[in-house]
Structures are given as C-alpha cells and as structure tokens.
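I'd like us to work through together how a protein chain folds, taking it slowly. We need material for that, and I hope you will provide a protein of your own picking. Go ahead whenever you are ready, and we will take it from there:
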Amino acid sequence: MPRDARDEARRRLSALAEDPTARWAPVRSLEEDAALLGRLMMATANHQQSGDQAADVTPDDVGAALSLFEDMRHQLDRLETQVVIEARRRDMDWRQIARHQGLNSSQAASQRYQRLMTRLEEIRQGVR
C-alpha cells in the first residue's frame, strides 16, 4: 500500500471519536508491546550512534523483545480477521478489501482471510 494511502487511512481512523473508557484489551496490549520494542531499539540506537556497545541492553533484554512477537502476530491476526469480517458485514466485496490491504486481487484477499482463520483456529486448538 502506498505511503499516502496509509497516511490517509491513519487520518480517517484518527477522526473517529475515542471513548477513553473503552480501551480494547488486544489493541492496548499491542500498543504497549510496540512501545517496549521501540524503547529497546532507541536504547540500542543511542549507544550505536556514540560508538558504544549498548551496555544497559543485555542479551536477555533482546531475548525478551523477541518473545513478544509471536503474541503480537496472534493479536494482529485476530484484529485483521475482525476488521475483514466487519468489512464483509458492511457489504464490501473482496476486491475492495484487497485494494485496502494492498493486494492485487479479490482471490488474494479471500485466501489471506482463510489463512488467518486457519492459523487462529490452530492456535485456539493448541496445534500451533
């Protein structure tokens, strides 16, 4: 998806009214984990710019950061699936969904949705 389309998407979504009491847990978790990863990367970048090894960032810190990704992927898959379901509920066809996802065809969007659903079901059943 082109950068200007992403910027437009962010502008549209930020215009939606936010209810501060209705923070949805999966989104809050993603925000917090992304912020933690950003802190790690800033700490390493600051030390790299000065030519030092990031003394306050240990291998255990980096390992902790790596451990966040699997849950973040799961949460993103759930969110994407729910948004696609909402798009279909609002009568968007697969071609429209594909365009917004940066995919080239309605078949690609439908297949992506099916892969997400399969992966989420496997996680739910403990297969993954």
About this structure: The mean pLDDT is 88. The helical segments are 3-14, 25-49, 59-89, 94-101, 106-125. Residues 28 and 114 are 26 Å apart (CA to CA).
